[in-house]
TrEMBL record, chain A:
It comes from the Bacteria. Pfam families: ACT_5. SUPFAM superfamilies: ACT-like. This is Acetolactate synthase. It comes from Iodidimonas muriae. InterPro entries: ACT-like_dom_sf. The lineage of its organism: Bacteria, Pseudomonadati, Pseudomonadota, Alphaproteobacteria, Iodidimonadales.
UniProtKB/TrEMBL annotation, chain B:
The gene is ilvG. Residues 394-542 form the Thiamine pyrophosphate enzyme TPP-binding domain. It comes from Iodidimonas muriae. This is Acetolactate synthase. Its EC number is 2.2.1.6. Pfam families: TPP_enzyme_C (PF02775), TPP_enzyme_M (PF00205), TPP_enzyme_N (PF02776).
């Protein structure tokens, strides 16, 4: 099985390492990758991955794990019209594609 | 990142003529409501230790950074708030690694702060420089190199919010020494507030209720997510409404009281026969905050073979990760359980069957001989200690005996290294639990292998006069490894003999603890009484049968109903 993903990353320390590490630890291998920076300092990373291990989870499970990374703003499967991770994003709540609001926390009053 | 509010700024804590990054860090921790930090000083973290005196933080000096991490982990498990640990660069950071991995695999909110060499030295292989950020990437929920003094408050607030939100986990902040030492402009410390999980929608809940209504043999499979999701009360109410039988994972123990009639026991490799039979026979498995871990499922394809799967969890990535769910609900587990009202269920025959299995497979505590029988000792100990008891465990046979035979009234009362299985967790976890609930009766159950992994923390107990009660089950071997070598490696015993152990009672006394040794079953009641009534830290050294095994046991690769039992010799 192969998977073609587009990820939008924060320009933070280790963001790319976290993504690549997650992909490999979950039983996939990166076959091809390109990256560019956007105007708003996001990094758009296109990754073509291949399922290496028989025990590896589904593509959907992998993308859910990637979407959980704090540095990942969005994950989309390129062959689909709607980002697959949108379902994840909705489930987690309060995440916007602009990344202006963290999916996991809000900063509030003391 | 955006923030809207900040903590009121008090004057610098001491030496009002300087306000360093380290002071900002301490102020930020105070703003998060941190009361206790566990740590160990060293070169690169010295500016932070310089800023600690005069703060409201209580620092607990452990004798090894791993002890600090485990103590912070346990503090977090009991309080539900992130635990905090401090270490220096290099070996200080690497000594935290096992503790971070433990918190990662058991989803424990923790903030670990490591010193780092000064920014100009980073990347030069400087003294005590390691890339702790890189080393820990796979075992943290998030991590930051704090290289801008102006962002200290913001980064700390973010770290706490991330650690505690959604599925909790550890966050690492790596703080270069020059950032900590830099004089900076005082700024108000922002306060991070965890984001609540969303609530499942009505249609999804109604579909789940319908699955439960249609089931004739439903079973709840409760995991550590119950405690993480603060859903213990909601689960108990759901069970009170439906009377559905319950099995629990190692980390789910206590979600339903051990003595509740619906509770069938722990499932899995060392689970109860009643629990494992129920899993194999159920027609609907209601997974609540569990993750189909291999220790719980045995051979995954043979796990709950006749059941539809209803999976409820706070983490979307767990749904259908290992076992395909017929229906998945993601979000606030307490809300889900409170919202599930399937109505009257036609499951009386199933309830009777489960109750009969539970009765048929009640554990016999009448072991022959005069020696101490560990399961009976642990059962009597937990009953004598009552509901205020918190048990912390090490890893090995004693850990499984504790899970099988102790009574747990709440999940926060059972602190165990479930995912990582880290020997050495027990005593530092006891320290953390005592700071989390100073009035609780905290007992550490350990073995003669595990206790040596963090023995140095006996000095911490003595230093702070912490009344931890330690039960050391000594079989003079690495018992679980010995058991597996006996059963699965043709009795080829390799490197498991610990018969040259020191005299543990003498050793504990050398650290300033009260200590005594128990050798016979007849002396156990008095020994338990002495242990629980002692004022200070106390070690009860118990000699047990070196050949004793943990039963039942599901062999690796087998289905859960294929349990091995002890062979009784006539």
């Amino acid at each position: 099985m192969t998977l073609n993903m587009l990820l939008m990353l924060d320009p933070s320390h280790g963001a790319l390492l976290r993504v690549l590490g997650t992909i490999e630890r979950r039983g996939w291998v990166v076959r091809d990758m390109t990256m560019r920076s956007t105007d708003c300092e996001e990094r758009a990373v296109r990754i073509f991955a291949h399922r290496k291990a028989l025990h590896a989870g589904s593509a959907e499970t992998l993308m859910r794990h990637l979407a959980k990374l704090i540095c990942v703003r969005e994950v989309a499967q390129e062959t689909q019209t709607r980002p697959v991770a949108a379902a994840t994003v909705t489930a987690l709540g309060n995440r916007t594609s602009s990344g202006s609001q963290s999916p996991y926390y809000a900063i509030g009053a003391v | 990142m955006t923030h809207t509010a900040s903590a009121p700024l008090a004057p610098p804590m001491h030496e009002t003529d300087r306000f360093t990054g380290a002071h900002m860090l301490v102020r930020a921790l105070e703003a998060q409501g941190v009361e206790v930090v566990f740590g160990y000083p060293g070169g690169a973290i010295m500016p932070v230790y310089d800023a600690l005196p005069g703060s409201t933080l209580t620092h607990i000096l452990t004798r090894h950074e791993q002890g600090a991490a485990f103590a912070a982990d346990a503090y977090a498990r009991v309080t539900g708030k992130p635990g905090v640990c401090l270490a220096t660069s290099g070996p200080g950071g690497t000594n935290l690694v096992t503790g971070l991995a433990n918190a990662w695999l058991d989803s424990v909110p923790m903030v670990a702060i490591t010193g780092q060499v000064a920014r100009p030295l980073m990347g030069t292989d400087a003294f005590q420089e390691v890339d702790i950020f890189g080393i820990t990437l796979p075992i943290v929920k998030h991590s930051v190199i704090l290289d801008d003094p102006a962002q200290i408050g913001e980064v700390v607030a973010e770290a706490f919010a991330i650690a505690a939100s959604g599925r909790p986990g550890p966050v690492l902040i790596d703080l270069p020494k020059d950032v900590a030492a830099s004089v900076t402009v005082p700024a108000n410390a922002p306060y991070g507030e965890p984001m609540p999980l969303p609530r499942a929608d009505k249609d999804a809940l109604e579909h789940a209720a319908d699955m439960i209504r249609k089931a004739r043999r439903p079973l709840v499979y409760a995991g550590g997510g119950i405690a993480l999701g603060k859903a213990t009360t909601a689960l108990r109410r759901f069970i009170a409404r439906t009377s559905i039988p319950v099995v629990a994972t190692l980390k789910g123990l206590g979600a339903l009281p051990t003595d509740a009639p619906e509770f069938l026991g722990m499932l899995g490799m060392h689970g109860s026969k009643a629990a494992n039979l129920a899993v194999q026979n159920c027609d609907l498995l209601i997974c609540c905050g569990a993750r189909f871990d291999d220790r719980a499922t045995g051979r995954l394809e043979g796990f709950a073979p006749h059941a539809r799967i209803l999976h409820m969890d706070g983490d979307w990535a767990e749904i259908s990760k290992l076992k395909t769910a017929d229906h998945g609900l993601v979000g606030d587990l307490a809300h889900m359980l409170n919202s599930l009202h399937p109505g009257a269920l036609a499951i009386n025959d199933w309830i009777d069957d489960c109750a009969q299995d539970k009765k048929n497979h009640t554990w016999p505590y009448d072991a022959p001989g005069d020696g101490v029988y560990a399961p009976a000792l642990l059962k009597d100990l937990s009953q004598a200690a009552g509901d205020d008891l918190i048990i912390t465990c090490d890893v090995g046979q004693h850990q499984m005996w504790a899970a099988q035979h102790c009574r747990f009234s709440r999940p926060e009362a059972h602190l165990t290294s479930g995912g990582l299985g880290a020997m050495g967790y027990g005593i530092p976890a006891g320290i953390g639990a005592l700071y989390a609930e100073p009035d609780a009766q905290v007992v550490t159950i350990t073995g003669d292998g595990s206790i040596m992994m963090n023995l140095q923390e006996l000095a911490t107990l003595n230093r702070y006069h912490l009344p931890l009660k330690i039960v050391l089950l000594d079989n003079q071997a690495l018992g679980m490894v010995r058991q597996w070598q006996e059963l699965f490696f043709d009795g080829n015993y390799s490197e498991i003999d610990l018969s040259d152990n020191p005299d543990f009672a003498d050793l504990a006394r050398a650290f300033g603890l009260e200590a005594f040794t128990v050798r016979t079953q007849a002396s156990v009641p008095a020994a338990i009484k002495r242990l629980l009534s002692s004022d200070g830290p106390t070690l009860m050294h118990v000699r047990i049968d070196p050949q004793a095994n943990v039963w039942p046991l599901v062999p690796p690769g087998a289905d859960n109903h294929q349990m091995m039992q002890e062979e009784v010799t006539p």
